[in-house]
Amino acid sequence: MRFHPALIPLLVCSALAACAPSVASAQAGGAYDLSWNSLAGGGQMFATGGAYSLGSTTGQSGAGALAGGVYAISGGFWSPSPVATTGVDTAAPPVPRVFAARLAGANPSRTSSAIQFDLPSLRRVDVSLFGVDGRLVRRLVDAPREAGRHTAYWDGADGNGRRVVPGMYFARVRAGDTQATLRIVRIH
To answer: Who contacts 157 (Cβ-Cβ below 8 Å, separation ≥6)?
Structure first.
């Protein structure tokens, strides 16, 4: 069997691609990029964040388990328009079952520090920052908060608006009769 010389590179690439393993990548949280290629299934499958779009060729399953957003499942190049669409209500985030506090972001930090706390019910919240000597540096929150996840931001300034010196500080999060203490390191 003879091939036209212009087809030989295409045939070599096709043969190498058929022997190549499938590639998969995924991440959890934030904007989603859940995508993978499957040469064995005869095409490509993809999904993107926000309003999700899952696609595949007719030889592949186009379904995936993701949470939230609007999903459109496409049947690949044979039917480029969505063959199924469904919406998932994500308006009401789940209510935490227990109190928890954590730092969200880099620690040590040069910029602002984010202090997240989960409340299982309405509680009076006090988020205060202390130096290693125990003195109050700044109070970020002193008010009731509804059940859910909340975030208090510290810009690295004291109660008078002056930038604090580099070092270790403690964030105390009190919610009703529970509390947590978090260590924050400031650098310049």
So the answer is: 138, 163, 164
